[in-house]
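pasting for ref
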Amino acid sequence: MPESKAEKKRPHLVLGLAGGIGSGKSAVAAALEKDFAFLWINADRIAREELESETLRPELERRFGPEIFSEQGHLDRQRLADLVFADEERRKELEGLVHPATRKRIRGCLAEAAANGQRALLDVPLLFEGGLGELCDLVLFVDCPERLRRERAVARGMRSEDWARREAQQMPVAEKRRRAELVVDNSGTLEELRARLAELRPVLIPTAS
């Protein structure tokens, strides 16, 4: 019988994070980095760096217009988001520019972690949709009620209607949960979250077979 993902015990485990918008994946990632010494590969941060790079600027300006940049020359990420998330074709156009460079850097980080025998945490908004779940030994789903997820997203500056639109563009939360091997509840305090993650230690810190 072939091994399941949960039975693969490797020192350089690759753990993927999945969850709905506002579920608190970043809080989970930060706790795993601090308490379990995971290398946190933050795809959002990498994508932001690529978006704001001088390499992409001419193409962004050509395709989406100079108005997405401020008078000081900084990218107005909210203005760009307003353009692309209301238009499926433009969203795909932006992803076509940013995703290849982001994926390349992610794979580089994973290779570095493997070379060092380090556990890696893959924090990618569209983990399953983008096919990156295949790079993971295990996927941890961050569970949180919809109402609380929306409240959290709005509290950090996202408009409620934007939350609903982006949520609708992603894989249903129930399907993400079904595909994941592990689940952690993140509807409470940070202390409660860390305690729940500690219960997963035997799986999150596997031993070489």
